[in-house]
Design a protein that fits this description.
single chain; six-stranded mixed β-sheet; four-stranded antiparallel β-sheet; globular
Length: 117
Amino acid sequence: VQLVESGGGLVQPGGSVRLSCVASGSVFEFSSNAMSWLRQTPGKGLEWIASLTADGSYSKYIRFVEGRFTVSTDNAKNALYLQMKNLEVDETATYYCVEGWGKGGTRGPGTRVTVSE
């Protein structure tokens, strides 16, 4: 299975964007797997942002994004989301969804978010 991210683009500082993650290639149910979002920048490398339990009942975030980012799933659409608000310039990065809790999962192509005026 390959996880494919989308929804990135150019957003102004303070703006919001919602990223999506869907599975392609084989059957993969987000409701059966803990999932995580990561991001990568040249300066910071690969950074874990958030994780969500398989049943969606518990999520955890890196402190810097708490209160601004929300990870969720839509079982009907079999998709994972990352809602990001009040984005900052240094959050410009390529964002990835991965299976599992933490940053050990296999990354897909990612989606680029550029925060700039």
